[in-house]
Design goal:
Layout lengths: L8 H23 L11 E3 L2 E3 L1 H14 L1 H4 L36 H10 L14 H12 L4 H4 L11
Helix pairs in contact: 2-5, 4-5
């Protein structure tokens, strides 16, 4: 019995770069979802219990849209923040808010900053995100600082009419 196997070297060699590219692209795309492990239980943030599903959804969106500047740890030192002054969410000091002094911003303040961005400071506007996605990111941002665990409830993020 004889096996008749045809091997086309040109085709195999031509496909290697494509396969390599696809593998590299897959690794890069999965890196956009990398970061800390998911949450396993709800947390009380700003006096409100946030479900684990919301926190994990917010984490996924934050990792995709925000971590390149703010870092996976929220410290403001992501790889794309070299020439920017990205906020360090761990310290919970926010510039764009309606609350006085060192008070934490409202959910609406954070949502407005996410949706409108600070283009003059290098932060893009994420106005295309759905309201529930923005609320999930707002909730996730609160997990970076212990100040939110001690805070009282704030006004909820506004919803579109």
């Amino acid at each position: 019995m004889t096996l008749n196997i045809k091997f086309n070297t040109a085709t195999a060699v031509a496909r290697l770069p494509v396969r390599g590219f696809l593998l590299a692209a897959s690794c890069l795309l999965s890196a956009c979802e990398a970061g800390p492990p998911p949450f396993t239980e709800a947390q009380v943030l700003g006096g409100v219990e946030v479900p684990v599903e919301t926190l994990n959804h917010g984490q996924k969106l934050f990792n995709r849209y925000c971590a390149s500047c703010h870092g996976y740890d929220g410290g403001g030192k992501g790889p794309a923040a070299r020439n920017l002054e990205a906020r360090d969410f761990r310290a919970a000091h926010f510039l764009y808010k309606s609350t006085p002094g060192d008070e934490l911003p409202t959910d609406g303040d954070l949502a407005n900053t996410i949706k409108q961005g600070r283009v003059d400071k290098g932060m893009p506007a994420w106005g295309g995100l759905r309201d529930d996605d923005v609320r999930a990111v707002v909730s996730y941002i609160k997990t970076f600082s212990p100040r939110w665990r001690e805070a009282q409830p704030s006004a909820p993020a506004p919803t579109a009419p």
